[in-house]
Amino acid sequence: MILTKLVPYNDIKKQLDKKNKIGIVSCNSCAKICGTGGEKEMVKLSERLKKEKYSVVDTDLIGAPCMINQLKKDELKGDTTIVLACVSGIYNLKKIFPKKKIIPGLKTIGLAAIDKNNKPRLIKRLED
Fold first, then answer.
1. Torsion, CA 71, CA 72, CA 78, CA 80, rounded to 10
2. Which among 16, 35, 80, 85 is least buried, having the fewest CB atoms inside 10 angstroms?
3. CA pair distance 42, 31, nearest whole angstrom
4. Residue stretches of the chain with pLDDT short of 70
5. pLDDT tens-digit series, residues 95-117
6. What is the spatial distance between Cα 58 and Cα 111, in angstroms, rounded to a whole number?
């Protein structure tokens, strides 16, 4: 699996404008297991942005955005999308939606294995 960590909230906000119509796409696979994606993190980010008067117009939970066949060409609403997925999911969304502003909400750390306590443990760091 892929290990990710959250991009700091203020770093995401720096890339937004209150005029943006924002969508959030979240991975329901590796990122969910890491605690950086899935429905819980998607809803938390959406509520935090709305509380600060950003216009969140859509949220979309996707099994594995790294698998391009799970993405639909008409799926993204709004002009800006925050992606809670690894670099592969971000790549696919940028490829399918080249005219949309895509903001990574996660940083890809490396490959992980699940330990006996169901926690992801880094086994190979990715090189930048």
1. 30
2. 35
3. 11
4. 73-74, 128
5. 999 999 999 999 999 999 999 99
6. 30
Tokens of 71: 């993405």
Which domains are present in the chain?
2-125 (3.40.50)
In angstroms, the CA 12 to CA 106 distance is 10
Sequence letter at residue 102: I
Q: Which residues contact 101 (CB under 8 A, 6 or more apart)?
A: 15, 20, 79, 80, 81
| pTM value surpassing 0.85 | yes
For residue 51, the SS3 value is helix
The DSSP 8-state label assigned to residue 28 in this structure reads S
SS (H, E, C) 65-104: CCCHHHCCCCCCCCCEEEEECCHHHHHHHHHHCCCCEEEE
- Residue 52: which H helix or E strand, with range? none
